[in-house]
Amino acid sequence: ETGVTQTPRHLVMGMTNKKSLKCEQHLGHNAMYWYKQSAKKPLELMFVYSLEERVENNSVPSRFSPECPNSSHLFLHLHTLQPEDSALYLCASSQEVLLVTGELFFGEGSRLTVL
Amino acid sequence: DQQVKQNSPSLSVQEGRISILNCDYTNSMFDYFLWYKKYPAEGPTFLISISSIKDKNEDGRFTVFLNKSAKHLSLHIVPSQPGDSAVYFCAASGVNAGNMLTFGGGTRLMVKP
Prior knowledge:
heterodimer, A: mainly beta, seven-stranded mixed β-sheet, four-stranded antiparallel β-sheet, globular, B: six-stranded mixed β-sheet, five-stranded antiparallel β-sheet, 0% helix
């Protein structure tokens, strides 16, 4: 089993659809993250959870709704998205949320296309 | 305003030669820097890091150099191999910079056989 697993790998949805991205980590880490990677832009941090509690939300539109039921699972619920939300969504985990010297372990990403 | 910038979106190098990837930052509160490597259809993986108390860190073919006065770091790959072809992301963090990693836009390295 890989350390961080994301499903689905590819998702195409209309602007009125509701869908969810799922992430699972098997590393025993306490912190989980959602990042967005758009073409020709840096990785953008969206949400951070530490022990199931949200500790960071970088002004993400409410059409993205995260959920962290336990320290191993993280979801990103999607509702009424816009075409500009099409991107690669990466989940990551780390031992702790304070990352000064720690490293992130990324999943393979979920490629989202909004029509 | 991007705090971490990788000004070269792509770099092409011949196999066996040196690859030099550059990264500039603006936030003087950053004191830890990392490089990640990303293959297509995979997530980024950690490659090498450096603390601001050092100016060089080496791991096999990979060396990271930090110039704090210039707020510049670089990743050297010697010798470059075709398997090194990937997108390389520079990232920075700091106790007084929010603790979260801030990433650059990435540089696509192509190593030609």
